[in-house]
Automatic annotation (TrEMBL):
Designated name of the protein: Small ribosomal subunit protein uS15m
Compartments reported by the entry: Mitochondrion
InterPro entries membership: Ribosomal_uS15, uS15_NS1_RNA-bd_sf, uS15_ribosomal
Record bears the keyword Hydrolase: no
Gene designation per UniProt: LOC100900535
Biological process, per Gene Ontology: mitochondrial translation
Length: 267
């Protein structure tokens, strides 16, 4: 009872947040760019999934008449009737076994030997298989953000392995890209990665525009000088003839001519 009475008598000011502790709105100050002679906008973000570089989607279909993994080595299966062999083929196998068979076929394209499980080529092919299976599933369930995150991580890891292989063995790197049908261009060595910013891009575009305007004006000025060159040559020739004529009329010696030469204001 006492608590309810105290709550009724409590002033309304106690339930409000003081002004000094209120959340102030953030204002982002940017310079206007409407006066610039070009237009610039932020580049559209591209996800790692779209830029993975895979030319094909999904794994290539395996031969359905081939026996399932463990049954392929059974000699009794070769003598069995056609109906029984079909039951033990990939046509009647679950989806997981079909994907595993397609993955093994993909691994055999780049494997160095049958027991290779540690080379960069094997790891790249394994991640390529997972990427294509995940992409196939993500196209059906695009709201599965956990799958999308896993797919991004695998793509980044495969790009790292491709970059390592390209630095170690360029010939093998090109072979793996061609065999797995992957497009990958490593970032050039010795060139730091520059983050795209608004101010930096505007400065770069402004400098390019200024260089272009300068080159155009210099070309126009050079063309105008070319047009005036013929008239200048005629005037120069007539002036030199007049000077020689005056020298002959005045009978000036070489010493007198040297005294008349312009030596400059600092000599």
């Amino acid at each position: 009872m006492l608590r309810s009475v105290c709550a009724m008598l409590r002033p309304a000011v106690m339930d409000t947040v003081p002004r000094r502790f209120r959340r102030r709105p953030r204002t982002i100050l940017t310079w206007p760019i409407e006066y610039l002679p070009f237009k610039w906008t932020y580049p559209q973000k591209q996800s790692a999934i779209e830029a993975s570089g895979d030319k094909i989607s999904g794994l290539p279909p395996s031969d359905g008449q081939r026996p399932r993994g463990a049954f392929a080595k059974l000699p009794e299966l070769e003598k069995a009737p056609e109906a029984i062999r079909r039951v033990f083929s990939l046509d009647f196998a679950p989806k997981a076994e079909i994907n595993q068979a397609a993955t093994e076929e993909l691994l055999d394209l780049v494997r160095r030997h049958p027991y290779d499980k540690e080379s960069l080529e094997y790891k790249i092919a394994t991640k390529t298989s997972r990427i294509r299976l995940y992409r196939e599933a993500f196209e059906k369930h695009q709201r599965n953000y956990k799958l999308k995150g896993s797919l991004n991580v695998i793509v980044l890891k495969r790009n790292k392995l491709l970059k390592m292989l390209g630095r170690l063995d360029q010939e093998r790197y090109n072979f793996v890209k061609e065999a797995l049908q992957i497009e990958h261009t490593p970032f050039p060595l010795g060139k730091p990665h520059q983050k795209i910013t608004r101010k930096g891009e505007l400065r770069r575009l402004t400098q390019e525009w200024a260089d272009k305007v300068k080159a155009e004006r210099m070309a126009a000025f050079h063309a105008s000088l070319k047009e005036q060159q013929e008239a200048f040559e005629k005037e120069k020739k007539s002036t030199l003839e007049w000077i020689e004529k005056e020298i002959k009329e005045l009978n000036l010696t070489e010493d007198e001519l040297k005294q008349l030469e312009f030596k400059g204001i600092f000599q």
